[in-house]
Design brief:
With 222 residues, this protein is an all-alpha fold. It has one domain. The chain is built from eight helices and no strands.
């Protein structure tokens, strides 16, 4: 099953401020040919159509040596194969409470919360032009989709912590399980915006894609 390698947003370098994050989008022409950029994220049946066999293969060398976009799994299949992991995500991360005082969260997301992540990915993908599969892969890498994931504390006090579904640079944390459905949707969407389009305190996927032009080099260098 080809899950594209996901970016590590908990960066070791200095975070760079992003102006007007929600307006950021992929502009690199090479990104659209490599698959990092996608102008048709409304199509959830892109890719190979199914996940194939669940195997591990080591790739190495330049980004051209990695699977081309024509071999990627379709978003819908990738999503369906990920839902069970998101249902147990918080337990798998060992989350009970965070240092900021947030309480216990149970095993993972509710079905409704997982659906809100779908909404957020599709909305932000269509606005940012980042391929929705790369956004989902990043979420799975950084939080397994646990909406209540704790922030990663930056050891450098001059740099922001990394909160949220995509462990963004100084973005938002989840509003909480007791909030209204609309408030939870807004919170989840903002977490995906933070990780994809950047924050006032640091880059997201868009800025890195525009710099490197393909997801593999982005993933390797971050």
């Amino acid at each position: 099953m080809l899950f594209t390698a996901a970016i590590q947003l908990a960066m070791t370098g200095l975070a760079l401020a992003v102006s007007n994050p929600s307006g950021q989008k992929v502009t690199s022409s090479s990104a659209f040919s490599s698959g990092a950029g996608n102008k048709n994220n409304a199509n959830i049946y892109d890719g190979t159509g199914n996940a194939g066999s669940d195997t591990y293969r080591c790739y190495y060398g330049g980004w051209e040596s990695f699977p081309p976009v024509s071999e990627w799994i379709e978003f819908d299949a990738m999503w369906n194969y990920s839902k069970n992991a998101m249902a147990e995500s918080c337990a798998d991360l060992g989350i009970g409470s965070c240092s900021n005082g947030a309480g216990a969260f149970g095993a993972g997301n509710s079905g409704e919360q997982t659906g809100l992540i779908w909404n957020a990915i599709q909305q932000v993908a269509q606005t940012s032009l980042v391929d929705h599969r790369f956004i989902l892969a990043t979420i799975l890498q950084e939080s397994i989709g646990c909406v209540n994931v704790c922030p990663t504390n930056n050891p450098d006090p001059s740099q922001p912590d990394n909160p949220g579904l995509m462990q963004s640079d100084g973005g938002v944390t989840f509003v909480g399980n007791s909030a209204s459905n609309s408030a939870q949707q807004s919170s989840i969407t903002q977490m995906v915006i933070d990780g994809t389009q950047g924050t006032a305190l640091g880059d997201g996927l868009v800025q890195c894609i525009n710099q490197y032009g393909n997801i593999y080099e982005v993933s390797q260098r971050e």
